[in-house]
Amino acid sequence: MIPTYRADNLSSPSIAFPLRLQQGLLQKTDERETYLMLVGIMARTPRGSWAGHPLFGFQEFFPEIAREGLSEESRERMAAATAEQINSVLLELGLTRYRVDSLVLDPLQKSMQQSDDARWTTRATEGRGVTLLLREHSSDRTVGYAL
Length: 147
Hints:
The chain is of the alpha+beta class and 147 residues long. The chain has helices at residues 31-44, 61-65, 72-92; strands at residues 3-6, 9-15, 20-22, 25-27, 98-105, 130-136, 142-146.
């Protein structure tokens, strides 16, 4: 990995995205997987609790979208607004290769079978799962991941 330097502070090196920590060591990973890890962190983080960006985090989305009595139309609007906010944060952080295409609340309870690699992605929402669709900027393909 090559250190990068910000133009306004050449004395403080940082390491370029994407990164992964495993047993206290930095390891290179593919960019899509790193975006998914970041979105997983955002899913577990309350909005506004990270000093790096005031809109980072969407933990509050899960109980809100599963709230009883909420119409499907309201759920769809809430999911679309949350996806837009996630994309806005990614863009402002300079992460433009992938974007969240949509967040979809699964209609039925899903099996929460999970591998060690995907453990962070499972997010139970009152017996319903949420699927995030991630799209590469210049592609028509989306990939779904359970949150």
